[in-house]
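User: Sequence recovery, please. Input:
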């Protein structure tokens, strides 16, 4: 074994910032991890999660082989035994109960794993029924819906051009802790500092004085769940005071008059008492968005996870359009990713738009979005008898027993399944219910190319990371997913995964050569496939996507990107600042920006009705993000778990005194869905009437094997969230502004 020191460069796969890392190793051991100072995008920035990759790789609790349930216990098994068990039991359930009896759930980590993301999609395509769920519907689906209706594709999401903006209005986001979300921006603090040095201003709107609010120029407290009311009042002001200026976007927009009529009743004077921000402040902010150009409005998880999530997401981009700040340098812009982007080919005016509600869930009749049903419906689809009842579940890199609404009900439902398969590296609160667990590799044993985040980045770039360590003698995630696909296709537990892999790339190549606006239209498929040899698996798909993408070499037709060129550029390739992309980015039926989609404008009736429903004395719950955490899946790493205990309930001192809750003492928090006990932290960082508990904790379930996490399990705030509370336009769970009762915990 080579024990000399080696240096590796790779992209951190643990959050959306995608920071470049410099990793030094001796043999199979990591000796240091630091930021890559030469990385073209992150320029040396790193957060604690990147350093913790060493502990994730070495974690003794990380599974290295399959487990199969025998006589009620999960025990080690061979890979062949594991897949034979899946084939035997899964197919039997399908034969007896039909295609809807088997469902799939995809978790957050799969978006950070090239192998899983690409080949999970292949597995989902051959899943017989329509019961697909993911973590997206406790996170971001409202933004996809509003973007799809306005711009024509679900991933045409404008991001703030923070490196050139002068005024940044941010709602429900905390990038100082998250490193950005649907907004890939490593070193957010450094970028804000540069903005302020050039005279720019950051305004944060949040019911909690977050870490981002601490570095902002202004922080505005807002009552949870009222961001739509605040933004509707800004839009109203822009029309009423003659501040609307579409600029170059004027010929590329539809629905301006309908929009003006739709927001006419949402004056600042009417909205101010409801949202807790004065009419004077609302009018001032509206004026600043125009006077301090370029400007950008951005909202994130706090705006998505509320009852008006889609309407808020829409209003954010409406205001960016009305102030002339959409698609302009320093405003909100559309990245041009080098690969896998749905809006990188075609011509403006020739799109087909998005389709919603092509099916409805069995029990509640909730419409699908992006080929998925809301995860808030998953428990009822399992525990409600009848035709189409889910009896078997495949989970991929997810922990819904901690991270989805009313987790107590979902945990009971998971325990009642006839069969459950989990692709996961941990025995956690979800996989403890599994009949078969199939663990993938360490991140340091996988290659990595970010598929999603270049589509959401504040700058255009391309980077690829080869594995740090040699692949061990067990299957990678893409091979696991292909074997599962083979089983679902009734090819048995030992399907020819090489043939399946060849089929996938052939279909992708055929689709591109048939696309009239493709860079390789009318090319010979066999020629394309030959040029990709000898690559297999994810590397072959990535190479194909790069070469046929907007910066690619079109398989020898022009100079451009290939996977080989990225392999030869370990610090990445900078593709430049964001550029204006309207109209070519638009894929709506009209070829224009739809300012007043009928579905969303119709929801303003519900927004109006909500003004009469608020209870002044009702305590409400919001979440909060922490830089040392990424949902529930990093709590078992000592480096990230150490330090002050972070799973506390923040409560304003006035509320604590009124409710008899003492600082540092246990408090009982209850809702319609459940009850938890949590340590109280009295602080004026939250506004009166609000309590804040972080998401993703509750590591105290029997059967899980997470030694570090179990030492400080925390309380699971999703025992309080209500599976019946969703944004009706997107199906996204309501996690912000949940009515709760708070009292001292009984001894």
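Assistant: Recovered sequence (747 residues):
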């Amino acid at each position: 074994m080579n024990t000399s020191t080696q240096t590796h460069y790779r992209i951190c796969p643990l959050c959306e910032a995608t920071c470049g890392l410099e990793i030094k190793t001796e043999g199979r051991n990591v000796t240091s991890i630091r930021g890559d100072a030469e990385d073209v995008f992150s320029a040396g920035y790193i957060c604690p999660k990147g350093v913790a990759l060493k502990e994730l790789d070495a974690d003794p609790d990380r599974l290295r082989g399959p487990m199969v349930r025998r006589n009620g216990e999960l025990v080690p098994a061979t890979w062949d035994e594991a897949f034979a068990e899946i084939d035997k039991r899964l197919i039997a359930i399908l034969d007896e109960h039909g295609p809807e009896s088997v469902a799939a759930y995809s978790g957050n980590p799969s978006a950070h794993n090239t192998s899983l993301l690409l080949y999970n999609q292949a597995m989902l395509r051959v899943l017989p029924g329509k019961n697909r769920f993911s973590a997206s519907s406790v996170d971001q689906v409202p933004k996809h819906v509003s973007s799809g209706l306005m711009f024509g594709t679900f991933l045409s999401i404008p991001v703030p051009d923070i490196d050139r903006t002068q005024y940044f209005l941010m709602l429900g986001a905390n990038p100082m802790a998250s490193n950005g979300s649907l907004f890939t921006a490593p070193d957010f603090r450094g970028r804000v500092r540069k903005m302020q040095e050039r005279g720019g201003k950051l305004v944060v709107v949040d019911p909690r004085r977050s870490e981002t609010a601490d570095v902002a120029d202004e922080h505005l407290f807002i009552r949870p769940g009222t961001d739509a009311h605040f933004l509707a009042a800004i839009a109203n002001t822009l029309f009423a005071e003659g501040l609307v200026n579409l600029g170059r976007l004027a010929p590329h927009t539809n629905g301006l008059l309908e929009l003006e009529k739709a927001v006419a009743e949402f004056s600042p004077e009417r909205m101010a008492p409801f949202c807790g921000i004065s009419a004077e402040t609302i009018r001032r902010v509206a004026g600043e968005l125009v006077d301090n150009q370029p400007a950008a409005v951005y909202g994130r998880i706090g705006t998505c996870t509320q009852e008006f999530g889609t309407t808020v997401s829409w209003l954010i981009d409406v205001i960016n359009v009305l102030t002339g700040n959409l698609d302009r340098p320093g405003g909100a812009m559309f990245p041009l990713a080098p690969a896998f982007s749905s809006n990188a080919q075609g011509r403006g005016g020739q799109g087909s738009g998005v389709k919603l509600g092509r099916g409805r869930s069995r029990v509640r009749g909730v419409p699908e979005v992006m080929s998925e049903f809301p995860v808030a419906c998953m428990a009822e689809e399992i525990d409600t008898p009848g035709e189409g009842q889910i009896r078997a579940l495949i989970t991929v890199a997810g922990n819904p027993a901690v991270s989805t609404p009313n987790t107590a009900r979902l945990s009971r439902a998971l325990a009642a399944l006839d069969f459950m398969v989990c692709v996961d590296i941990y025995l956690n609160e979800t996989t403890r219910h599994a009949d078969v667990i199939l663990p993938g590799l360490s991140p340091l044993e996988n290659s990595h190319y970010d598929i999603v985040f270049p589509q959401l980045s504040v700058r255009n770039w391309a980077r690829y990371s080869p594995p740090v360590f040699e692949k061990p003698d067990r299957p990678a995630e893409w091979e696991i997913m292909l074997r599962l696909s083979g089983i679902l296709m009734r090819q048995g537990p030992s399907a020819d995964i090489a043939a399946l892999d060849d089929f996938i790339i052939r279909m992708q190549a055929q689709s591109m050569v048939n696309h009239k606006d493709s860079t390789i239209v009318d090319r010979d498929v066999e020629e394309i496939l030959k040029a990709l040899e000898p690559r297999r698996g994810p590397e072959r798909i990535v190479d194909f996507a790069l070469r046929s993408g907007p910066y690619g070499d079109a398989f020898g037709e022009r100079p451009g990107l290939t996977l080989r060129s990225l392999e030869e550029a370990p610090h990445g390739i900078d593709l430049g600042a964001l550029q204006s992309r309207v109209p070519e980015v638009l894929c709506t039926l009209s070829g224009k920006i739809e300012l007043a989609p009928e579905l969303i404008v119709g929801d303003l009736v519900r927004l109006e009705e909500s003004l009469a429903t608020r209870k002044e004395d009702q305590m409400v719950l919001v979440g909060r993000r922490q830089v040392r955490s990424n949902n529930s899946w990093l709590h078992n790493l000592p480096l990230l778990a150490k330090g002050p205990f972070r799973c506390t309930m923040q409560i304003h001192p006035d509320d604590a005194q009124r409710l008899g809750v003492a600082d540092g003492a246990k408090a009982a928090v209850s809702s319609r869905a459940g009850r938890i006990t949590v340590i109280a932290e009295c602080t004026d960082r939250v506004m009166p009437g609000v309590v804040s508990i972080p998401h993703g904790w509750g590591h105290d379930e029997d059967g899980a094997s997470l030694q570090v996490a179990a030492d400080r399990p925390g309380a699971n705030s999703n025992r309080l969230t209500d599976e019946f509370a969703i944004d009706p336009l997107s199906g996204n769970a309501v996690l912000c502004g949940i009515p709760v009762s708070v009292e001292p915990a009984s001894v």
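The mean pLDDT is 95.
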